[in-house]
Amino acid sequence: MNWYEMLKEYFPEEELKTKQHLDTLLAEKDYYYLDCSEQHVLLYAEFPSFIFVDYMYVRGSKRHRGIGKQLIHKLKKKGKTIILEAEPQDPNDSDTSKRLRFYSREAFNKADCIQYTKHSLITGEKVNLDILYWDSSGEENDVSIYMKMIQMYEEVHTFKEFELYNDYHPKAHDAIHFAKTGQDLLS
């Protein structure tokens, strides 16, 4: 089975990029990486000061064997802040609770002041996601994570979007809001 088919088994369509989008990032951007086996898929962007985990999947039958922990620790060894998007806890979906407990055990924090709505150019759906981060330096805060999310959004999520989807995502500041005071950071 190929790595994209593995992602499609787990991630809802509205959270996925197309295979062409991912292949184009892998081929054209020296900061975008794929790590995969029959047991897992990890796609991430490594910037000078942080890593963005775009997708991490461990095959269901291989879970609870430490594979996810090994993948996260491999990234932690790079000594950079790690950022990822996660579905908020949903009482009707036990996977969300398990996933959030995993990241909590791995010392990830939730960026409480950031509101992020991911817009799918495939389905047109909008999904609210939490931003989680592991702070390598002890100096990160929601403002610094917000700025990193803006950079990631512009360099990963919207990369060649019109060429690949014949459409555009909302501008970064329209999709990602700093909500400490209920207003956008730039207001």
Q: Can you describe this structure?
A:
This protein has 187 residues and is of the alpha+beta class. It contains 7 helices and 8 strands. It has helices at 3-10, 19-28, 67-76, 94-105, 142-157, 161-165, 172-175; strands at residues 32-36, 40-46, 50-58, 81-86, 109-110, 114-119, 126-134, 176-178. Strands 1, 2, 3, 4, 5, 6, 7 and 8 form an 8-stranded mixed sheet that branches. The chain is globular and about 40 Å long.
Entry keywords:
single chain, 187 residues, alpha+beta, Aminopeptidase, 8-stranded mixed β-sheet, 7 helices, 35% helix, disordered C terminus, Acyl_CoA_acyltransferase, Putative acetyltransferase YjbC, transferase, GNAT_dom, acyltransferase activity, transferring groups other than amino-acyl groups
What's the short version?
By secondary structure, this protein is α+β, with helices and mostly antiparallel strands. The chain has helices at residues 3-10, 19-28, 67-76, 94-105, 142-157, 161-165, 172-175; strands at residues 32-36, 40-46, 50-58, 81-86, 109-110, 114-119, 126-134, 176-178. Strands 1, 2, 3, 4, 5, 6, 7 and 8 form an eight-stranded mixed beta sheet that branches.
Put simply, the count of helices is 7
What top-tier CATH class fits best?
Alpha Beta
Remind me, CATH topology? Aminopeptidase
Give the amount of beta strand, in percent: 25-35%
Query: How would you classify the quaternary structure?
Result: single chain
Q: Point out poorly predicted stretches.
A: 182-187
Biggest beta sheet summary: 8 strands, mixed
What is the second-level CATH architecture? 3-Layer(aba) Sandwich
Q: In CATH, what is the homologous superfamily?
A: Gcn5-related N-acetyltransferase (GNAT)
Percent of residues in helical segments? 25-40%
Please tally the β strands and state the result: 8
Gyration radius over CA: 16 Å
Q: Per the principal axes of the C-alpha atoms, what is the gross shape? A: globular
Order of helices and strands: HHEEEHEHEEEHHHE
Q: Cα distance, first to last residue?
A: 47 Å
Domain N-acetyltransferase: 1-183
Organism: Alkalibacillus haloalkaliphilus
Keywords: Transferase
Protein name: Putative acetyltransferase YjbC
